Inverse folding.
């Protein structure tokens, strides 16, 4: 029987779930509400690791991803005077380095657009089936969730209300869905486990030198500050600021954007290298994204007819580089279990958790990096020296060790109940 489903959040997880649900033979009625007034364009490039690319292929969207992919050729380390100490990735065969960058690197906004267009196209194809409907509603979010026997009553920000067979919280790391039902007090956000790092991402106009550059340049300062410039996008350079979270930066998530920018400016004002240019551009950019890097851990991903998906339920954190892939995998398993269990939504949600939990437990293991060495000036000097030696010897193991990929340790289940491409 078709289900009436509400998805909170049109990020990666929400749009991916819409794609899998419209491919279910059940012909669900799907509404996605997004709090922002349009798709959010902020963020840097994301990559599809392990199961991510095969799932996009099964949705028939891998060619679109490939067409929009960004091709970096090397990872470099420079000092505050701009002198390059190490470069990983350029070799005689002209092959790229592996590790931090993957075959499928795509801007977050492009990936959301590919998923959005994909879901609309499939829904249009199947619109002959009366119950198969999909709608995206922007500038709207749920403000109240009340569990009824086998439904959920939802009150929305515009005062309207409706009832659904299933509500999916795909509303990101600071999920309101989770805070409404999982946290004792909504302001607690007690499911967040902070890693001690904060990040800010935005775009800059390219300089002359960056126009033909495909480099991912990094400059490190004591105190775990890293300023990175990724130059491979043809239209702009991406700036990434990382810092060890100070008392002020802890407040980031709850501040207006202007205040967030000021906090970053204060933290980076004496950086050197490209710092001045980057901070000046940050003040005028309108695609600023900042976050305290955290993992989300909750004991159970569903309560009654409400279920969490993606970062809302099991954010692995930016440090793992696996948040996007985890959202795709989670969306696939949730849609697959719903299709498999038909009318029995309770069993489907239990099975979603049983199948996915071992995968999430693996990807939430943070990389075994002891970053303490980067805190002092001496430690940092030693690190630059080691990087220079590794680079001279053409040893790329550093880049490969930084990001993990769990394809071989957990297999994707098969769901013939979903009509996917081979
Ligand atoms: C603007 C932006 C930029 C990002 N940039 C990067 C990046 O550069 N690198 C990186 O690794 N990760 C980035 N992330 C996080 C990354 O997208 C996620 O970690 C990952 O893809 C999992 O996706 P998700 O859909 O679970 O969460 P998200 O991608 O965070 O999507 C959640 C969506 O829900 C919406 N939302 C929030 N609250 C509500 C609500 N109450 N009701 C309805 N909708 C709501 C948000 O506007 C957003 O569209 C970014 C996220 C955002 C929102």
């Amino acid at each position: 029987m078709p289900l009436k489903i509400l998805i909170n959040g049109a990020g990666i997880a929400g749009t991916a779930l819409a794609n899998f649900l419209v491919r279910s033979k059940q012909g669900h009625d799907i509404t996605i509400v997004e709090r922002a007034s349009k798709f959010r364009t902020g963020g840097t490039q994301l990559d599809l690791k392990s199961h991510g690319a095969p799932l996009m292929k099964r949705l028939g969207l891998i060619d679109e991803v490939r067409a929009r992919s960004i091709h970096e050729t090397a990872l470099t380390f420079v000092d505050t005077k701009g002198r390059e100490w190490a470069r990983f990735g350029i070799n005689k065969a002209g092959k790229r380095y592996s590790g931090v960058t993957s075959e499928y690197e795509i801007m977050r906004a492009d990936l959301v657009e590919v998923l959005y267009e994909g879901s609309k196209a499939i829904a249009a194809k199947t619109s002959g089936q009366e119950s198969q409907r999909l709608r995206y509603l922007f500038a709207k979010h749920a403000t109240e969730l009340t569990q009824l026997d086998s439904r959920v009553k939802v009150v929305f920000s515009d005062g309207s209300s409706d009832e659904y067979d299933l509500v999916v919280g795909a509303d990101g790391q600071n999920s309101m869905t989770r805070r409404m039902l999982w946290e004792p007090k909504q302001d607690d956000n007690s499911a967040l486990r902070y890693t001690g790092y904060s990040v800010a991402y935005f775009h800059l106009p390219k300089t002359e030198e960056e126009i033909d550059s495909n480099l991912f340049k990094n400059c490190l300062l004591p105190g775990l500050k890293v300023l990175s410039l990724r130059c491979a996008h043809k239209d702009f350079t991406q700036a990434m600021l990382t810092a060890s979270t100070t008392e002020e930066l802890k407040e980031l998530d709850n501040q207006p954007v202007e205040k967030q920018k000021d906090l970053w400016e204060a933290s980076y004002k004496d950086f050197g290298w490209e710092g001045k240019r980057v901070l000046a551009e940050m003040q005028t950019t309108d695609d600023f994204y900042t976050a305290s890097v955290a993992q989300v851990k909750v004991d159970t991903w569903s309560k009654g007819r409400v279920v969490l998906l993606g970062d809302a339920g099991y954010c692995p954190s930016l440090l793992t580089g696996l948040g996007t892939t985890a959202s795709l995998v989670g969306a696939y398993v949730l849609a697959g279990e719903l299709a498999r269990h038909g009318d029995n939504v309770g069993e489907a949600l239990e099975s979603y958790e049983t199948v996915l939990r071992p995968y999430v437990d693996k990807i939430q293991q943070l990389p075994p990096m002891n970053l303490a060495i980067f805190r002092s000036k001496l430690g940092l000097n030693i690190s630059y020296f080691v990087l220079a030696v590794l680079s001279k010897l053409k040893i790329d193991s550093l880049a490969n060790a930084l990001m993990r990929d769990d394809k071989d340790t957990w297999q994707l289940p098969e769901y013939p109940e979903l009509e996917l491409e081979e």
User: Anything to note?
Assistant: The two ends are 25 Å apart (CA to CA).
